[in-house]
Amino acid sequence: MDVLPLQAGRMAGPEPLTTEVIAAQVVGAAVWAPSVHNSQPWWFSVHGTGISLRADPGRQLMVADPAGREMMISCGAALFTARLALRSLGYIPETRVLPDPAQPLLVAEVSWPRRAAPAEYERRLFDQVLSRRTHRGGFDPAPLSPRLLAVLTDGAERHGAMLRVIADEGGRAALAAAVETAERAQRLDSAYVRELAAWASPPGSTRGDGVPATSYPARYEPTAPSFPGRDFAHGRGWGLPRFSLAAATRAAGTVCLLTTADDRPADWVNAGQALQRVLLTSATCGVAAALHSQPLEFAWLRELIRAQLSDRAHPQLVLRLGTVIQTAVSIRRPPASVLLAGGEPLRTSHG
Ligand SMILES: Cc1cc2nc3c(=O)[nH]c(=O)nc-3n(C[C@H](O)[C@H](O)[C@H](O)COP(=O)(O)O)c2cc1C
């Protein structure tokens, strides 16, 4: 069976589509969710009248993410995208998150028993699925509109998460220092360095996963305060030429913490759903996001951030939001290779 080309807002006609056709469309969109190191730690299967989304433990970052928290956030982002794709086709998703305690890797089961035309905002979010990119660097100085920030915080709340804007200079500096401390420590830790290197491919690679050299700047773009990015190139000169010829030091953007009240796998999945809603909503307004999970990969730094900056809610991700001209290009594995029907990939060739 062929995977249909993804078409934004293409509603199903009066005749219901087959489960396989819907699943192919939905997975074709879901794979474009963000994931830590672009590890894409998921696979999908068709079951009766719906699809199952499972975490793929073979793609978990065992050094940086031994608990699988970032893996589940990534799967949550894919889940939100899958649900949005169903809405764009005119179906109403019914979702059970972590439905079976005996199967902790079964992230969600989604079916679509009813139909209704997508709302305008759902179409607009869906239109951003393929083009949204993670930004790595500084932003233009213009602040985000309070109206957009209100929509983003409201969107995160819909998934039981909280997007906290860290607006005061002290808080921004403290969070920047946490990112810098973590980044420095990880660059000196051979296990981290080896793991990161395994997910960072050289220019010209034909891999469909990992962080390609087309998605980060070759030279660190200093921001004020300084939020260093991960060292994907590891001194090999890989990466894009400077994103912008503007001032040498650029704005860090609007600094936010995505948090949840609890810290169980279900909270991580919710944080992932909230993350993708925030990213896509931002993208509809031309706003990009830089993500920093480095400090949350150290228990003591995560605890410090929790105590000092998030009212004891559990920090799940650091985000910086702002406007910028983006040139980053990302990659994905072909949807057919992560969509199994009866235990077999629906289609195995690239496309
Ligand atoms: C849980 C999570 C943590 C992430 N942490 C970082 C990070 O620390 N640094 C970074 O540059 N990108 C981070 N990312 C972004 C991924 O690297 C990015 O989503 C992936 O490379 C795919 O690229 P795209 O988002 O442009 O499609 C993270 C994404 C997720 C979901």
Gross morphology: globular
SSE order: HEEHEEHHEHHEEEHEHEEE
Helical coverage, percent range = 25-40%
Largest sheet: 6 strands, mixed
| Overall pLDDT metric | 92
Structural category is: alpha+beta
Radius of gyration: 19 Å
Give the ligands present. flavin mononucleotide
As laid out across the biggest beta sheet, the strand order is 3-4-2-1-11-12
Beta-strand fraction estimate: 15-25%
What is the helix tally?
8
Total count of strands:
12
User: What is the rounded distance between the termini?
Assistant: 12 Å
- Uncertain segments are 1-9, 346-351
Write up what this structure looks like.
It is a single chain. The chain is α+β, with helices and mostly antiparallel strands and 351 residues long. The protein has 8 helices and 12 strands. The strands form 3 sheets. A 6-stranded mixed β-sheet has the order 3-4-2-1-11-12, covered by helices on one side. Strands 5-8-10-9 form a 4-stranded antiparallel β-sheet, sandwiched between helices. A two-stranded parallel sheet has the order 6-7. It is globular and about 55 Å long. Bound molecules: flavin mononucleotide. Residues 34-38, 70, 73-74, 77, 133-134, 136, 211, 215, 229-230, 291-294, 317, 328, 330 line the site of flavin mononucleotide.
